[in-house]
Amino acid sequence: MPPIWRDPNTSPIAQRPGEIAQCVSACLERGNLDGITGLFHPDCTIFFPPDAPPRIGHAGVRAVFAGFLGQTPTTQSTLVSEVIVGDIALLQADWQVIAPDGSVLAKGRSTEIATRLAHGGLGYLIDCPNGPPPCS
């Protein structure tokens, strides 16, 4: 089942955990930062870029994705693993963000925890685009 769009200017709703990346990709290609933000839990943590401190909440989502928006990139994501228990999912995917000239802006093997959001769809609670960070 494809993601449900409430409104083209907001975020789509992922019905299954594996759809979240497709929804983020669609919003990224449209330059829809609000839509991307709506696909993350308000208390989310994003570990990107890998050498930076984790980004927290919707402000963190905006900080991570804002730099990609002006480049109108496309994304490719291949789900490698999906474990679902109730409203929580553990995901792994190989992904890359590609500029219009074909250059790869970023890539990795992600590990994410997804959960049910207030609107009823699924979104990321923990996003580790380059895998979990090492123990400190």
Please characterize this protein's 3D structure.
Helices cover 21% and strands 41% of the residues. With 136 residues, the chain is α+β, with helices and mostly antiparallel strands. It has one domain (4-127): Nuclear Transport Factor 2, Chain: A (Roll). The chain has a 6-stranded mixed β-sheet with strand order 4-3-8-7-6-5, with helices on one face. It has a two-stranded antiparallel ribbon with strand order 1-2. A hairpin with a 6-residue loop joins strand 1 and strand 2. The chain starts with a strand and ends in an 8-residue tail after the last strand. The model has no long low-confidence stretch (mean pLDDT 90).
Q: Which series of helices and strands comes N to C?
A: EEHHEEHEEEE
Distance between the termini: 40 Å
- CATH architecture assignment: Roll
Q: CATH class, please?
A: Alpha Beta
SSE class: alpha+beta
The total of helices stands at 3
β-strand percent reads 35-45%
Low-confidence stretches at least 5 residues in length (pLDDT < 50)?
none
Number of domains: 1
CATH topology: Nuclear Transport Factor 2, Chain: A
- The percentage helix is 10-25%
Main sheet makeup: 6 strands, mixed
**Overall pLDDT level:** 90
Supply the key terms.
136 residues, alpha+beta, Nuclear Transport Factor 2, Chain: A, six-stranded mixed β-sheet, two-stranded antiparallel ribbon, 8 strands, globular
